[in-house]
Amino acid sequence: MQYFYKRRQGIFNSICAPAIRGLESRRNLESAMSETYRKIAASEAVFVADSHFRDRTLPGEAERRDRFARLLESVPSDGAVFMRGDIFDFFFEYKSVVPKRYFDVYNALYRCTSRGVDVHFLGGNHDYWFNNFLEDEIGVASHGEHLFVECQG
């Protein structure tokens, strides 16, 4: 299955490869997209988007975060997770400071990558203030505006 993700003015367009008319092969698709291409060997692919995690003390937020952590724990070590943007509601990363209110989310992501799960992040319109924290400290592969992946055949 092939997917193409592109951030344009904070809006994601998801195009499933078979829906693209007039392109007869993967090579034609790749050249037509002329974007970053990654082949992912994953037994299971999980896609997460628009969770907009906020302050944990807000009603229902702790439960949502716990469900997210359980979801990540359920992904097999040879699986992959694709976070398609707006995971955090207004994330600001400075040179050596990140928001502490998301510590449990960072921890869940770190436990996931530590097990060998391939985790990818492609920011949304609430995610413009990311530097390298997720990639350097948590092990999440961070991508710019485009990501073209093939997984599960």
List strands and helices in order, with pairings.
Blueprint: E1 2-8, E2 11-16, H1 26-33, E3 37-40, E4 45-48, H2 61-74, E5 80-83, H3 103-114, E6 118-122, H4 133-138, E7 141-143, E8 146-151
Parallel strand pairs: 3-8, 4-5, 5-6, 6-7
Antiparallel strand pairs: 1-2, 1-8
Describe this structure in words.
This protein has about 150 residues and is α/β, with parallel strands linked by helices. It has four helices and eight strands, in the order E-E-H-E-E-H-E-H-E-H-E-E. The protein has a four-stranded mixed beta sheet with strand order 2-1-8-3, with no helix packed on it. The chain is globular and about 40 Å long. The N terminus is likely disordered.
Q: Which terms would index this structure?
A:
single chain; 153 residues; alpha/beta; 4-stranded mixed sheet; 4-stranded parallel sheet; 4 helices; 8 strands; 26% helix; globular; disordered N terminus
Strand content of the residues, in percent? 25-35%
Mean of residue pLDDT values: 76
| Total strand segments | 8
The poorly predicted ranges are 1-24
Rg (CA only): 16 Å
Count of helix runs: 4
The strands making up the biggest β-sheet line up spatially as 2-1-8-3
Helical percentage = 25-40%
> Quaternary state, please?
single chain
Structural class: alpha/beta
Largest sheet: 4 strands, mixed
Q: CA-to-CA gap between the ends?
A: 6 Å
The succession of helices and strands, N to C, reads EEHEEHEHEHEE
What is the approximate shape? globular
